[in-house]
């Protein structure tokens, strides 16, 4: 079963911009549906930082009887840190305690199952039995000890789970498998509905008894409460289906039951998807109608998210392809009708954006999700005015949701290797510092240098190019990938502040090693492009993708890109954005870059909408001055009038210095692409591990 794509999902993440002068500062405002979000160009960053006090973000607010020290929220994010019996583990406690220490006012736990049949993944924590209360109490005490407040998110996955996780066939309003997971499910009887409503109420009582400060009913993202709300998943013919009023009944009954169990003063929140952004699903107007009813049923605050599992581009956990604050207009619309505090969310990483959104009335509080994984101290840094030291989330999703969902592993963060390892503590300072040379200022090398310096070693970084970043330099050039360059700049600033020399334009040679004789070498020299034996591959019209992205090549009107991996497709994206007619040839029948993950979806969508041509199953035969010949389906074809051919056919490790280091008895660790070309996550984490091991 395939859910039709709602084109509003694409439109919703790409708002209009207009520029204006504010004194000496030129800013650009996202302007659509009555919402304004300011985006400041890098050239005006210093002036803008001086003008931002962040008084809105760091003001107090009350939700029912609960007073919060600021308006920053860490929303629920699945970690995989729980125990298989649903109890809280030491790892989860230390992880959340570390986030509380960073200064956030309100933390919402990851999903917590109110019934074992509602578990969405094996290690989901639970609150369906009193045996799980002690762990929750320990968690609450830890968070309170750091000055933050804790909310338990009450969750039932409904049909969005597997029988192996739930212990029984998944249950749902109607026996309709979800279009993403395609898991068979059974329709809930009225009696079962009553049992689950009671389970929510009992779970809320346990949360209160465990000392938590509030509960949040998860009514978003395609889980059970939202399944009852949606006409796509709820096709019942009794009092729970059909009309808007009937489809809202389950959510209202859950809130009423929770309120009746915990009393009038205990805060009750509800997280909603303001718009499903799927054709045939409900839209924002439905949620505007529903919000006052949810408040009347007992909700003290509304957490305004967006989307479900089948929403194109996974806007519930948006990638770097979506604009910061893209979902704030929906929060604003709900706020105008709800009469209770509204929490805004949607790829918000910068505290300045959050402060301005609150000031504009878009939301009362702001959720920073993955930003808490990337830099748990970012709020304290912002409060002290140290904005340059904030490590901003990339929106890459590699270490968090994709790792949890596709690899079935506990989460981490691509650019924060400490995420999930908080119990190990920080690096221990060595008693005898060593002279460490790091070869390469790409992600692996920079990460290794940071970790080694934190341990107290004397570190120098050598980069043969005139700029740092390694493979991130070209990788940051395609549309929506500037955040990679921002991380490089952050890493270099951190090294400079700690006294590490980053030597640019200096290639480490054999004589240098012989003369310098470092105690240890970290080889992070990256990779070199693959050059397959294709006739004409060395022609004057053939260029490596990295050179194209770095502006070393004059762009022509018509190009053929060889290879449809990420490098090839992102280079095609780069070229198309500059008006080049692009055809991509890929030898595999199934292109390596699919459409399931968020970045993949947006990359393919932009390519298709711009008129790009992708030919899978095409083997390149030869390259001529203005022609590319290839074989597809057993027949030779030609693309005429080609002005430039761009190669993106993979990479090979570049580790020539390893043999030289071994000759001179210099211990050497090889990391990142120099070991084997892979993702950014592996590069950063391997570099960090190498630095910590010294």
By DSSP, the count of extended strands is: 31
Total discrete domains:
3
**Helix count, per DSSP?**
24
**CATH homologous superfamily classification of the largest domain:** Aldolase class I
Mean pLDDT: 93
CATH topology of the largest domain: TIM Barrel
- How much helix, percentage-wise, in residues? 25-40%
Summarize the structure in words:
- It is a single chain.
- α3 packs parallel to α4 (about 135-145), α6 packs parallel to α9 and α16 (about 445-455) runs parallel beside α24.
- The protein has about 700 residues and is an alpha/beta fold.
- The strands form eight sheets. The chain has an eight-stranded parallel barrel, surrounded by seven helices.
- The chain contains 24 helices and 31 strands.
- The chain folds into three domains: about 10-420, Aldolase class I (TIM Barrel); about 430-530 and about 665-694, NAD(P)-binding Rossmann-like Domain (Rossmann fold), CATH 3.40.50; about 540-650, FAD/NAD(P)-binding domain (3-Layer(bba) Sandwich), CATH 3.50.50.60.
């Amino acid at each position: 079963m395939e859910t039709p794509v709602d084109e509003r999902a694409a439109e919703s993440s790409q708002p209009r911009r207009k520029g204006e002068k504010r004194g000496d500062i030129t800013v650009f405002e996202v302007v659509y549906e009555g919402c304004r979000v300011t985006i400041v160009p890098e050239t005006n960053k210093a002036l803008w930082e001086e003008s931002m006090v962040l008084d809105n973000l760091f003001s107090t607010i009350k939700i029912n009887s609960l007073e919060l020290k600021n308006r920053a929220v860490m929303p629920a994010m699945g970690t995989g840190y729980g125990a298989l019996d649903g109890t809280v583990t030491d790892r989860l406690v230390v992880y959340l305690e570390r986030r509380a220490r960073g200064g956030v006012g309100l933390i919402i736990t990851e999903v917590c199952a109110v019934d074992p049949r509602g578990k969405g993944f094996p290690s989901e924590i639970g609150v369906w039995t009193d045996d799980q209360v002690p762990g929750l109490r320990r968690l609450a005490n830890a968070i309170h000890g750091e000055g933050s407040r804790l909310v338990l998110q009450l969750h039932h996955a409904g049909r969005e789970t597997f029988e192996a996780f739930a212990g029984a066939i998944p249950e749902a309003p109607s026996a309709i498998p979800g279009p993403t997971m395609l898991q068979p499910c059974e329709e809930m009887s009225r009696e079962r509905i009553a049992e689950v409503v009671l389970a929510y109420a009992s779970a809320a009582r346990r949360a209160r008894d465990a000392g938590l400060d509030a509960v949040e009913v998860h009514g978003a993202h395609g889980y059970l409460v939202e399944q009852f709300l949606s006409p796509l998943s709820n096709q019942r013919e009794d009092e729970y289906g059909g009309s808007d009023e009937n489809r809202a009944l389950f959510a209202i009954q859950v809130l009423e039951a929770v309120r009746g169990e915990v009393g009038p003063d205990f805060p009750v929140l509800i997280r909603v998807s303001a718009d499903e952004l799927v054709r045939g699903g409900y839209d924002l107007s439905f949620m505007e109608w529903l919000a006052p009813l949810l408040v009347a049923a007992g909700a003290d605050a509304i957490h305004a998210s967006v989307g479900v599992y089948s929403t194109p581009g996974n806007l519930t956990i948006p990638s770097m392809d979506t604009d910061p604050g893209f979902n704030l207009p929906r929060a604003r619309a709900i706020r105008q009708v709800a009469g209770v505090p509204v929490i805004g969310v949607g790829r918000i990483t910068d505290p300045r954006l959050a402060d301005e959104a609150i000031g504009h009335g878009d939301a009362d509080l702001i959720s920073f999700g993955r930003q808490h994984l990337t830099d748990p101290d970012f709020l304290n840094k912002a409060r002290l005015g140290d904005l340059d030291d904030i490590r901003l989330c990339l929106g890459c999703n590699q270490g968090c949701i994709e790792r949890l969902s596709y690899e079935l592993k506990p989460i981490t963060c691509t650019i924060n290797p400490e995420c999930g390892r908080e119990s190990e503590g920080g690096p221990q300072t060595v008693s005898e510092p060593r002279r460490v040379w790091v070869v390469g200022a790409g992600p692996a090398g920079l990460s290794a240098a940071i970790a080694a310096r934190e341990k107290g070693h004397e570190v120098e970084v050598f980069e043969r190019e005139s700029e740092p970043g390694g493979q991130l330099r070209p990788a940051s050039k395609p549309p929506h990938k500037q955040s990679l360059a921002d991380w490089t700049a952050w890493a270099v600033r951190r090294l400079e502040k700690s006294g590490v020399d980053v030597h640019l334009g200096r290639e480490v040679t054999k004589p240098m090693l012989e003369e310098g004789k470092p105690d240890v070498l970290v080889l992070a020299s990256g990779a070199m492009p693959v050059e397959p034996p294709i006739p004409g591959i060395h022609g004057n019209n053939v260029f490596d993708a990295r050179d194209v992205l770095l502006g070393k090549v004059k762009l022509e009107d018509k190009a053929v890109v060889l290879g449809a991996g990420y490098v090839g497709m992102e280079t095609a994206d780069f070229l198309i954005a500059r008006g080049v007619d692009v055809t991509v040839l890929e030898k595999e029948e199934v292109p390596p870059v699919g459409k399931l993950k968020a970045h993949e979806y947006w990359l393919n969508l932009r390519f298709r909408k711009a008129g790009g041509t992708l030919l899978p199953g095409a083997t390149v035969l030869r390259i001529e001055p203005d022609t590319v010949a290839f074989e597809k389906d057993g027949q030779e074809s030609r693309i005429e009038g080609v002005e430039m051919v761009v190669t993106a056919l993979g990479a090979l490790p570049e580790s020539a210095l390893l043999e030289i280091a071994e000759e001179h008895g210099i211990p050497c660790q090889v990391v990142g692409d120099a070991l084997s070309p892979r993702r950014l996550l592996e590069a950063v984490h391997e570099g960090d591990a190498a630095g910590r091991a010294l």
